[in-house]
Structure formats: structure tokens, C-alpha cells
Amino acid sequence: MLTDQRASNRIAIIDVGSNSVRLVIFDGMTRAPMPIFNEKVMCGLGRDPENTGRLNPEGVELAVVAMHRFAKLLRAMKVTHVDVLATAAVRAASDGKEFCDRVASETGLTVKVIDGLEEARLSALGIISGDPMASGIMGDIGGGSLELVLLDQGEIKKRVSLPLGAMRLHTVFGSDRARLTAEINQHLDTVDWLAEGKGQQLYAVGGSWRSIAKLFIAQENYPISVVHNLAMPQSEMAELTHIISQQSRVSLEKIGGVSKRRIDSLPHASLVMNMLMTRMQPKEVVFSGHGLREGWMYEVLPEDLRQRDPVLEACFSFAEDGERFHQHGEEVAQWCAPIFSELPVNIERLRLAACIIGDIGWNEHPDYRAEQSYNRILRHPYIDLNHHDRVFLAYTIGSRYTGNFKGDEASDRILSDEDRLTGRLFGHVIRLGHTLSGGVEGILPQTQLLLEEGKLILQFEKQASALYGEVVEQRLSKLAKLMNRESVVRLAE
């Protein structure tokens, strides 16, 4: 019965793009939906070397085979809410309707072809779903088109769709840089609002642009392999995209880290980004794993769910799936709040997140709890944090499980000394809270953690005094030492 209930909540989207056809099945309609299945087939529907204006015949056959497989899997998984969205390749092809009709007749799946402006809007909503106050310009480069959206504090202000997809540029212009540059300039010249994003973020969406980030990670031995929310200064990106735009396929293959099917069009995608940055002058480029699919999910959410914090919601889900007493995290957060007053908004958010997932390593071997918990958070694909905050949260939970957690190259490279001290403080107070309560709800409210005149005080209600013990004393003392305070235990009057 439980299995049927869970299956009925599943939601699926099939994204039919110029390069690939992808099925993603989400676990339900939540603020932080978790993909439980994600499969991509590189079909190349938009690859049209003869400039016929039709879909690539080989790609059509590959796509239809993929859709048959997806339809069968969806039936087996009992997913009834399915949307199939087709973008640039299908909408531009003279035989696009014929393809949609064939898919419907052979698989029972109804394909909805969305126009460029709608694609732009949905991709922008994908960015907003992870960053509700996003400001700057979102660029989503696919195989056939480039969508650009001006964002202001989470609101969509302007949008456009341009025929500057990486596959199209490679197919039509090859390595003719002069013609390629002229084509890009011609279309970017029509967008008179790009300079409005100056000094803000360029949100880079799409597999071709994410491949640029993968090249950077491989080339620089960057310590975090998760591309989502990798942020790079505009100056570094300008240099990198300029270099990539001039490379041959052979040179790019030697670097590694990029799908062979994307290598041919990667220089074209890099040139588009480089020329876009020249006009926009962003502060930094933020690579995003969110896009059309996440935007589609975000739009169908009820308004009350949209208002929730995506990071905290993801942590609640994480805790519910993996902790012994998952409700206890909120109680820990409230209990220790008095000693962490006036924190910056983002650090307070990370403190809450750490408290919520403060028990995720309970079932690991004691010798490896810190390391395993750190690595799980550092590489978790669905926590919507930038890389600094991701490492900080991982370091905090590592510190929760051992008093002298060292971290690794990522924490050494990304966190400041002040960050590490704050992470240790948060980790030690979560450790104290779990030790004191045994992870059980209802115990911490019988105690108080207070700061008074250079002292860290743990105060017990009379009926809770038996909770005090040697291990509690040790952990209170370590926390007080980190705070340069004296530890004191007392009974409430």
C-alpha cells in the first residue's frame, strides 16, 4: 500500500531537446523534489548537416526507441503524471508535427512543443526555484537555441530566444570563425538590455556550458566535482572561454572531462558565452544544473510550497530519510539559538540546515562518521548551495562527529580560518545537543544554553538534573573553550 502511495505521487518529465532526450522522474510535488530516475539518450534530433530544415532521420529513430523505453518504464513505475516537452529542434523542423504524431501513436505519450519564449521562462523559473532572489541574466544554451532572461530579485523582467544553439552553430558554420562571430554578433545586437545585468550573475544553463565547468574542474584539479552552483569570476571565465573557443577537437579530448558528443560544439558554446559576457560584464558566472525541468516543477507547486526555503526543505527530506529521530533537528536549532544571536542571514540559514541534518551519520562506523558525513554533504547532488556554503555545511557536520575534524583539500581551499572556527562551533554545539538528549525530542526544552558575563552556561530544570553526566561535561567544556569562555552547569531556581 505504501509503495502504491509513493508511486502515485511520482511526477515525470521528458525533455526532448536538440541534442538529447531525457526522462526525469521526481519523487513528488515538494519544494526540493528528488529525482529518483534520470536517464539521457544523446539522439541529435537537431543535427541537420544538409540544412534540410527537417529532423535528423537517425536522431528520430533513436528518439522513438528511447521514448518506447521511457513509456514502458513509466508504466512499470506506475507514474501517471507525465509531461513531454519538446524545444528548439522539434519546433523549428518542418517535420516536427510528424515526429510528435509518431511518438503519440507508437508510445501513447503526448508531446507538447513549447515556443522559445516559454522555454526561456521555464528555464528562468528553474534558476528561481533554487535562488528565489536571483538577479542578473540567465542564459540557457541548447543544441538549437539560446534563451536569455533578465532577472531582478527573482522576477522575470525580459526574455528572448535566439538561434544560437551550440549544435546549430557547429553544423552551419563549422570552424569558420569569421562567419560564426558575425552570426553571434548579429543576434546579440538585437538584445538591447544585456548591459542591465552588469555587475550581477550570469546564470549558465545547458549541457554545453556545464561542459566548460567540467573542463575547468578537470584542468585545475578543483576539489569539488559537483558543477551545480560553481561560481567563477568574470575575468577567469573570459580567459577560459576564449581559450576553449580556439581549440580543436583533438586538443579538447586530451584535457578530458567532457562528453565526446559535446566536444565538436564546445568551442562554439564557449564563443557565445565569451561574446555574451563582453556585452553584459557580469560579476561572475554561476553554472546551474537547474533549467527547464526544474522550472516546470516549480511552476506546478502550490504557492505555499514555493515560499519555503529550498535548502532547508532538502535538509528536512535528507533527515527524514536517514536519521533516527529526524524531528529533533529543529529542537536543537531552537535550543542553541541564544548563543548565536545576530548571525548574518546566510550563516543563520546554514546553522539551521546543520541542526536539521545533524544526525545523518548515526548509522556509520564510529571511526568514519565524520568523514562519511562530510563527503555525503560535499557531493550531494540536490542540496541547492553555492560551493562555499556546501563546503561549510559539510565541514560543520564533520565537526559534529569529532572534536578535531580536519576536513580536506576542499575545506582548506575554500574556507577561511573564520569559516572553519564557526563551523567547529556549530558542530560542537550540535554534538552537545545530541549527547545531552540522546537525540530524543522533549529533553532539550528542559535545559537552557546561555551566555552570561564571559561564561557558557548549561542550565537544567530540577526534574532534568539527572541528564548531566561526564560526557556532557566534557563536550560542554570543549565548546566553551572554542568560545574562549568558562563552562558552568547550574540548576534553574
TrEMBL record:
<dbReference type="InterPro" id="IPR048951">
    <property type="entry name" value="Ppx_C"/>
</dbReference>
<dbReference type="InterPro" id="IPR043129">
    <property type="entry name" value="ATPase_NBD"/>
</dbReference>
<dbReference type="GO" id="GO:0004309">
    <property type="term" value="F:exopolyphosphatase activity"/>
</dbReference>
<feature type="domain" description="Exopolyphosphatase C-terminal">
    <location>
        <begin position="324"/>
        <end position="485"/>
    </location>
</feature>
<protein>
    <recommendedName>
        <fullName>exopolyphosphatase</fullName>
        <ecNumber>3.6.1.11</ecNumber>
    </recommendedName>
</protein>
<dbReference type="InterPro" id="IPR022371">
    <property type="entry name" value="Exopolyphosphatase"/>
</dbReference>
<feature type="domain" description="Ppx/GppA phosphatase N-terminal">
    <location>
        <begin position="32"/>
        <end position="302"/>
    </location>
</feature>
<comment type="similarity">
    <text>Belongs to the GppA/Ppx family.</text>
</comment>
<dbReference type="InterPro" id="IPR003695">
    <property type="entry name" value="Ppx_GppA_N"/>
</dbReference>
<dbReference type="InterPro" id="IPR050273">
    <property type="entry name" value="GppA/Ppx_hydrolase"/>
</dbReference>
<dbReference type="Pfam" id="PF21697">
    <property type="entry name" value="Ppx_C"/>
</dbReference>
<keyword id="KW-0378">Hydrolase</keyword>
<dbReference type="Pfam" id="PF02541">
    <property type="entry name" value="Ppx-GppA"/>
</dbReference>
